[in-house]
Write a structure and sequence with these properties.
Helix content is 42%, strand content 13%. The chain is an alpha/beta fold.
């Protein structure tokens, strides 16, 4: 226990975050069991340490531990928590819960046995928590995404621009843009964000693409294969599928053709696509007619964010692809996003968005529920909105 406290203090003193993630202000910290989910590389560990610095500075009843520590190969979590609690512990932060066997059973035991102990844990985006029979009614789950364009700009310029809802942007984008343009020129930062601004590791690593490739391989080699119990001999097929998607995205998938290219079955391809989506490596854009049926093939395949495109398939980088991928990535959280008959995306079954630099026909411009997200304009008018502004939604 003493060595774990020493590690806790050392991490707080040396691993200081440089970007305050505003999820800290959204979470209800009064809940006794809280999960922070997210893909590799988005900063879950740093987020927990920043939370401790902000809310529990010099609090000896609070402890951060990484369950990847070999100490827990011999010492069970329930036994450890019992000792921690009896010695006055009140807040326990567990990093990488998915590295610990029977994590859900032990968490439930601790939750029920120690009624005034708070447990906060991080988990891979792949891990099923709300669908877990042991924890479904006990845990509050939050998602930590990569940096939004707004967060990237705030870090780069030391501003404190706030986030805007989709309805605010649609109804009042001209005034919002005026307020932002009073302080910065957003397009001066946009290309940098598309290339390296999504994962916070850009702040500390000059070989950013190499870092992203390492993150991707860890997702494929551990997160997806281990957590989905896939034999490692099938790993090359997963890698091949991801590369095919990156090289051709946005891809209207022919599942039979993909199955032939990867040398597997159609059913396996559909499973692999879901695994890659759960790992937040790709997006599956559903058809507007079948958005509730996950067994149907998606309308299009996108990479999860533009940084992945530059890392995996830089030869497939083009402006339209970048713009569509950026829009989808920034807008999809908590919303229903499907394809559109006369645009790229339908949002919440109501609003149609076209991603374009080209002139749009008058019928589209006059519609109350159709919008144009335009690249390389600072300010829009009417239903034409600057694409970059959708990066201010979280």
């Amino acid at each position: 226990m003493h060595n774990l406290y020493k590690t806790h203090i050392s991490l707080l003193n040396t691993n200081k975050g440089t970007i305050r993630r505003e999820l800290i202000d959204i979470i209800d910290w009064n809940h006794r069991l809280i999960a922070i989910k997210g893909s590799r590389g988005v900063g879950k560990t740093t987020f927990l340490l920043d939370y401790i610095r902000e809310k529990h500075h010099d609090d000896k009843t609070c402890l951060f531990i990484n369950l990847n520590n070999l100490f827990f190969t011999e010492r069970g979590l329930v036994s450890f928590v019992d000792e921690f609690y009896k010695k006055g512990g009140k807040v326990l932060l567990l990093d990488q819960i998915h590295k610990y066997p029977d994590w859900d059973i032990d968490l439930k035991t601790c939750y029920e046995k120690y009624e005034d102990l708070q447990i906060i844990f991080t988990a891979s985006s792949i891990l099923r928590i709300k669908g877990n029979a042991e924890l479904a009614d006990l845990v509050k789950v939050y998602y930590l995404n990569g940096l939004s364009f707004r967060e990237f700009i705030n870090q780069q310029t030391q501003n404190k621009f706030r986030a805007y809802s989709l309805s605010e942007i649609m109804q009042n984008h001209e005034q919002i843009v005026d307020d932002i343009l009073d302080k910065i020129r957003p397009l001066a930062y946009f290309q940098d964000y598309l290339q390296y601004g999504y994962y916070p590791s850009y702040l500390e690593n000059k070989t950013y693409n190499d870092t992203i490739l390492k993150i991707i391989n860890l997702m494929l080699e551990f997160d997806i294969t281990y957590l989905n119990q896939i034999e490692l001999k099938y790993l090359p097929k997963l890698k091949r599928l991801l590369y095919l998607i990156a090289s051709n995205a946005p891809l209207q998938p022919n599942v039979s053709k993909l199955a032939n290219s990867v040398e597997t079955s159609r059913a396996t391809i559909m499973n692999y696509l879901r695994y890659l989506q759960n790992a937040r490596l790709i997006h599956l854009l559903a058809s507007r007619n079948e958005e509730k049926d996950s067994s149907k093939k998606p309308s299009k395949l996108y990479l999860n964010n533009t940084n992945l495109l530059y890392a995996i398939s830089p030869d497939n980088v083009n402006k339209q692809h970048l713009c569509e991928t950026f829009f989808y990535n920034q807008i999809h959280g908590g919303r229903i996003v499907t394809d559109a008959q006369n645009g790229e995306f339908t949002v919440d079954k109501e609003y149609i968005f076209k991603i374009s630099e080209q002139e749009i026909d008058d019928d589209f411009r006059k519609s109350n529920n159709q919008f144009i997200a335009s690249d390389m304009i600072e300010k829009g008018k009417g239903n034409q909105i600057p694409l970059w502004l959708f990066g201010f939604m979280y």
